[in-house]
């Protein structure tokens, strides 16, 4: 095969997704820690699902339009670090074939090269031995193996073979993988996608289209200033601008990577929204009523009601109540095995009525999605890089309404640095980590992301974890117990800690979190 048209390209993308979805549990199981929260496969699958839904709804003869739809869908649907990196690989693919109706071998070479560069740029501190390494070595092979008139399937096979070799070498580049005796999970997910793509070159699959109707709310027909961002194809952009010129004045526009940002004055908002929705999907909109006589009748784009607003990712009934008591504006359900998407966080940002918005992702695998959501929004928002829910409690308690955003961010980060996090969960496989021998279905104690003990009961594990972590600098121990722990069991652990560490205050709070029997903070 020498060329790929748009229909074949759609088939390749969908088949790639189907194989990843089929193998998602395999990818989830490639967790460095033997804990029941592996979610790389789930995150990559959900990210691709958002992209594939856009691809199915795209009627086009252009491969570039298909790639752009995939890029836009994965960008908004990105979940977890692996999902964000995958969305950037898709974005790079779209950039590599901009304006092309057909994909040939040269396009394949460009796709791997540009996708790799785009993904590396998106990660502040790239780590070798990960999906990035697999991507980079495939890009190198794409350049080394390229020949004029080479068959695409043979060419892609060579590139994928290089990817498999790179994947198998990831444990030699990242010691934690070698110790856990696993390959990088993100790299494995990427290889499943590419294997699915290769299979699709030899067979078609059906593409079903299911378009949902757009509901438009009738707003008063007055004088308004509109700021709008729309997801739209480059081909339809000019047609939309021509229509808007008929309906508005003072039109300014900026177009980048499928996102059209507009500012203009108009009268009929309903008619305008109907026009825009016929060409693309509205992502954000702010409306300012420029007629003072009816200003009080409009509730959009009013001056923020307060200086600061907060968004937190939480998973657990007890945790949610604590966040409510700390006046958090929006609580996003999520955490381990259930990472919210970039779009979930973006929507939460748009709903917070404040001048500044501060986001607590509360999981290392949600930080990149939160930052990506901030980049998509025109609101002033910052991400506090919390890696656990209790860290955000400490950060929020340091908040000062009268201080600037930068000063508060400094306070938050200082508060987080003073917190140590302990966790107790169950092992899902036999392994040896940090010289700790672990057996499946035993309980493990974790201190600051390092496994320190493994015992046959939850109580013994929790006690030994505390004994290994509490030191002379500890003055406060806070025990958050999960949904599978009875109150009396939790109180028993509290009494042990009060007796064992007499110089420390020991607090007990119901977190209601799944998977982790206890999460304990030391301050």
Chain-wise SSE layout:
Elements: H1 6-22, H2 24-29, H3 40-56, H4 63-77, H5 80-96, H6 105-122, H7 131-144, H8 152-173, H9 175-180, H10 185-200, E1 224-231, H11 234-247, E2 248-256, E3 259-266, H12 269-279, E4 281-289, E5 308-314, H13 317-325, E6 330-333, H14 342-351, E7 356-360, H15 367-376, E8 380-383, H16 389-397, H17 405-417, E9 420-426, E10 431-433, E11 436-438, E12 443-447, E13 450-455, H18 458-469, E14 476-481, H19 487-500, E15 505-510, E16 518-522
Parallel strand pairs: 5-6, 5-7, 7-8, 14-15
Antiparallel strand pairs: 1-3, 1-4, 2-3, 9-12, 9-16, 10-11, 12-13, 14-16
Helix pairs in contact: 1-3, 1-4, 1-10, 3-4, 3-5, 4-5, 5-6, 5-15, 6-7, 7-8, 7-10, 8-10, 11-12, 14-15, 16-17, 18-19
Descriptive terms for the model:
523 residues; Serine Threonine Protein Phosphatase 5, Tetratricopeptide repeat; alpha/beta; 4 domains; 48% helix; Alpha-Beta Plaits; single chain; Rossmann fold; 19 helices; six-stranded mixed beta sheet; four-stranded antiparallel beta sheet
If you had to describe this structure to a student in words, what would you say it looks like?
It is a single chain. This protein is α/β, with parallel strands linked by helices. The protein has 4 domains: 6-202, Alpha Horseshoe (Serine Threonine Protein Phosphatase 5, Tetratricopeptide repeat), CATH 1.25.40.340; 224-288, 2-Layer Sandwich (Alpha-Beta Plaits), CATH 3.30.70.260; 306-417, 3-Layer(aba) Sandwich (Rossmann fold); 420-522, Hypothetical Protein Tm841, Chain: A,domain 3 (2-Layer Sandwich), CATH 3.30.1180. Helices cover 48% and strands 18% of the residues. The protein contains 19 helices and 16 strands. The protein has helices at 6-22, 24-29, 40-56, 63-77, 80-96, 105-122, 131-144, 152-173, 175-180, 185-200, 234-247, 269-279, 317-325, 342-351, 367-376, 389-397, 405-417, 458-469, 487-500; strands spanning 224-231, 248-256, 259-266, 281-289, 308-314, 330-333, 356-360, 380-383, 420-426, 431-433, 436-438, 443-447, 450-455, 476-481, 505-510, 518-522. Strands 13-12-9-16-14-15 form a 6-stranded mixed beta sheet. The protein has a 4-stranded antiparallel beta sheet with strand order 2-3-1-4, with helices on one face. A 4-stranded parallel beta sheet has the order 6-5-7-8, sandwiched between helices. Helix 15 (367-376) links the parallel strand 7 and strand 8 (380-383). Helix 5 packs across helix 6 and helix 11 runs antiparallel to helix 12. The longest helix is centred in the first third of the chain and has 22 residues, at 152-173. Residues 204-222 and 292-301 have low confidence and may be disordered.
């Amino acid at each position: 095969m020498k060329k790929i048209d748009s229909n074949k390209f759609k088939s390749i993308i969908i088949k790639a997704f189907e194989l990843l979805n089929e193998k998602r549990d395999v990818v989830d199981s490639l967790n460095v820690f033997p804990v029941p929260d592996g979610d790389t496969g789930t995150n990559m699958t959900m990210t691709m699902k958002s992209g594939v839904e856009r691809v199915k709804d795209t009627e086009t003869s252009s491969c570039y339009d298909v790639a752009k739809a995939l890029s836009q869908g994965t960008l908004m649907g990105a979940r977890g670090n692996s999902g964000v990196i995958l969305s950037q690989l898709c974005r790079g693919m779209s950039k590599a074939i901009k304006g092309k109706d057909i994909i040939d071998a040269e396009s394949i070479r460009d796709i791997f090269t540009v996708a790799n560069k785009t993904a590396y740029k998106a990660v502040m501190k790239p780590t070798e031995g990960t999906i990035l390494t697999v991507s980079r070595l495939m890009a190198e092979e794409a350049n080394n193996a390229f020949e004029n008139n080479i068959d695409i399937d043979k060419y892609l096979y060579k590139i994928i073979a290089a990817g498999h070799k790179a994947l198998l070498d990831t444990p030699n580049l990242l010691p934690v993988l070698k110790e856990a005796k696993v390959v990088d999970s993100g790299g494995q997910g990427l290889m499943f996608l590419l294997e699915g793509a290769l299979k699709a070159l030899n067979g078609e699959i059906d593409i079903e289209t299911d378009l949902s109707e757009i509901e438009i709310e009738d707003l008063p027909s007055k004088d308004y200033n509109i700021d709008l961002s729309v997801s739209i194809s480059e081909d339809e952009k000019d047609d939309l601008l021509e229509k808007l010129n008929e309906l508005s004045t003072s039109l300014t526009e900026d177009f980048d990577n499928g996102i059209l940002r507009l500012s203009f004055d108009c009268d009929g908002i309903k008619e305008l929204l109907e026009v825009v929705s016929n060409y693309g999907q509205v992502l954000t909109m702010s409306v300012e009523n420029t007629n003072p006589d009816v200003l009080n009748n409009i509730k959009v784009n009013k001056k923020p009601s307060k200086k600061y607003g907060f968004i937190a990712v939480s998973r657990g009934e007890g945790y949610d109540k604590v966040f409510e008591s700390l006046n958090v504006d929006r609580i996003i359900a999520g955490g381990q095995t259930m990472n919210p998407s970039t779009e979930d966080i973006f929507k939460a940002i748009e709903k917070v009525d404040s001048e500044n918005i501060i986001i607590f992702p509360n999981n290392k695998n949600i930080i990149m999605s939160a930052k990506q959501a901030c980049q998509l929004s025109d609101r002033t928002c910052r991400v506090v890089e919390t890696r656990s829910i209790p860290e955000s409690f400490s950060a929020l308690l340091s908040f000062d309404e009268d201080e600037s955003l930068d000063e508060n961010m400094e306070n938050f980060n200082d508060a987080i640095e003073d917190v140590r996090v302990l966790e107790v969960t169950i092992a899902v496989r036999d392994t040896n980590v940090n010289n700790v021998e672990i057996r499946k279905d035993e309980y493990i104690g974790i201190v600051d992301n390092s496994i320190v003990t493994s015992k046959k009961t939850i109580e013994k594990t929790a006690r030994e974890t505390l004994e290994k972590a509490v030191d002379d600098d500890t003055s406060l121990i806070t025990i958050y117990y999960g949904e599978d722990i009875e109150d009396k069991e939790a109180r028993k652990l509290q009494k042990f800690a009060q007796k064992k560490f007499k110089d420390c205050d020991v607090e007990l709070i119901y977190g209601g979190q799944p998977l982790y029997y206890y999460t304990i903070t030391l301050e």
